[in-house]
Specification:
Elements lengths: L1 H37 L10 H13 L6 H11 L11 H5 L3 E7 L2 E7 L3
Antiparallel strand pairs: 1-2
Helix pairs in contact: 1-2, 2-3
Length: 116
């Protein structure tokens, strides 16, 4: 019985880890693709946006915490030198402030709005 419980716990840990890594990569790809398709400046302010993807992708894949990928995504976004781009962990975002929902092509995006 103990052996079965240990195997189950290890299986759940591996599954949760894979789910987290998938979520991290999905978040990264969604942010990169959204900026790539919808950024107002086709030159990305002189930033090689495709090179940024290749630079950050392995770092996101290797991230070990829930915070690390979003710090890296923000680091990538900050290269664009724009003050209004930010990526946050979805659970943290949903627990804060007021939400506005909008659609960009086939991706759903959430944005936070603050009362003035």
């Amino acid at each position: 019985m103990k052996k079965s419980v240990i195997i189950l716990i290890l299986s759940l840990t591996a599954t949760l880890s894979c789910t987290t890594k998938y979520r991290n990569m999905h978040s990264f790809e969604t942010v990169w693709r959204t900026v790539n398709q919808a950024h107002f400046d086709p030159t990305f302010g002189g930033v090689d946006w495709k090179a940024a993807h290749e630079q950050y992708k392995p770092q996101i894949a290797a991230a070990e915490s829930k915070e690390e990928p979003f710090l890296l995504i923000n680091q990538m976004l900050f290269e664009l030198n724009l003050s209004h781009l930010l990526s946050v962990y979805p659970d943290d975002f949903l627990n804060e402030g007021f939400l506005a929902h909008s659609r960009f092509s086939s991706d759903q995006c959430l944005s936070r709005s603050q009362p003035h």
